[in-house]
Every structure is written in C-alpha cells, then in structure tokens.
Write a structure and sequence with these properties.
The chain is α+β, with helices and mostly antiparallel strands. The chain contains 2 helices and 3 strands, in the order ααβββ.
C-alpha cells in the first residue's frame, strides 16, 4: 500500500471517530437542552412527561430516576445529570 493511501485511510478513521464523539456530545446537549427548555417553558411536569416517554421508548436507555440533592427528590436523570435542575 502506498504510504499516502495508508495515511489517508488512517486520517479518515480518525475523522469518523471524531465525528462519533461529536455526535455523542450533541446527543448529550440535545436531551439536557430539551429538558431545560421544557422546564423554562412549561415547568417540571413537562420534563417528567418527556423523561417518562423516553424511558418507555428506551427502557434500557440513559434516562432513569435518581435522587437529586439539588431538587431533594427523585428526578429524571440523563446518566448523572438531573434533567430538572441540570446538576
Ligand atoms: Zn435536580
């Protein structure tokens, strides 16, 4: 294999790894951003509704109820991020 082709292939591989990382970050922003906006527009109950829907659609997804120190309640979390207060 020509060295130029090998380096091109490896840079493409790096690029696709980079893209999937960006996608993961976008996803993170996505749900937390959605919930932030829902909370600001419609209040906490809208965030609970949205989170419950997510959990119904993806029972093994990244959204689950956890105790939040900031909210002093069991709230929907995306991983360890509270979707109500964002902490
Ligand atoms: Zn919270």
């Amino acid at each position: 294999m020509l060295p130029e082709i090998a380096s091109l292939l490896s840079s493409q591989k790096l690029l696709s790894q980079f893209k999937s990382k960006i996608m993961a970050i976008k996803k993170l922003k996505h749900i937390t951003q959605i919930c932030k906006e829902l909370y600001e527009e419609k209040g906490a109950s809208a965030v609970y509704e949205y989170a419950n829907e997510r959990m119904n659609q993806m029972p093994n997804g990244n959204v689950s109820y956890k105790q939040c120190a900031g909210c002093e309640a069991e709230t929907p979390h995306w991983h360890d991020t509270c979707l109500i207060c964002g902490s």
